[in-house]
Amino acid sequence: DRVSEARPHNGLILEASPLPTPPVSALLPVDQRATQIDAASPSLTTTPSPSLTIPLPRHHHAFRSPFPFLPLFDTVLNPGNLGSLLRSVHFLGLPSVLLSTRTCAPLNASTLKAASGAADALRILAVSEPARFLDESIRNGWRVYGAASPEAAANIGEAMGWRSSSTREKHRRAKPLFEMSPHPLGKSPVILLIGGEGKGLRPALLKRCQGFLGITKGRKVGGDVGVDSLGVAVAGAVVME
């Protein structure tokens, strides 16, 4: 009873080590023929060789993009939501997930229960400084997109001050993906940012986005029962798919 902290145990206790979450400082360059993703570790940044290799699944090219695609979760505070997102990552066949360790819920018992075992099958990479991580990865050829509603994406450029003459080109690049043709995800490796409950992505990460993915409402919502959006666990699964 003491070890289980009064939770039901049926007379059995299994002591296990925490899930490995190796820290990464950047994703290294990759092309569409790649069979693996190489990442740099903050502790080994002085060495020329990559410190971490992530094999891509054999069915990777069944995705719409021939390049690697990794989600990055930031400010997902509810353990149940984080676990559900990890379950979706595994179900969709993605090889790995990036986790902002300073802003997300911990990988505790509640998170792992919601993941239904998927967390054990994923390579979970810890990102302690997401903004710097994104800057380095962008320099290595990765493109960054953010999950945002169509309404929010339409206002993000103006809110971030991208309409000034010195940043006009950046604003043009940061159009919602649902307005882009042809679809840009097949041209480069991609990091998809998914923010947490409430406010979504932080401004520091929005500044790094080169485009946005959103979910269009199927009907006018909000005025009947007050539901004006999807929860982060459901919305994250939809945009990753």
UniProtKB/TrEMBL annotation:
One of its GO terms (molecular function) is rRNA (guanine) methyltransferase activity. SUPFAM superfamilies: alpha/beta knot (SSF75217). Residues 73-240 form the tRNA/rRNA methyltransferase SpoU type domain. GO terms for cellular component: mitochondrion. Keywords: Methyltransferase, Transferase. This is Alpha/beta knot.
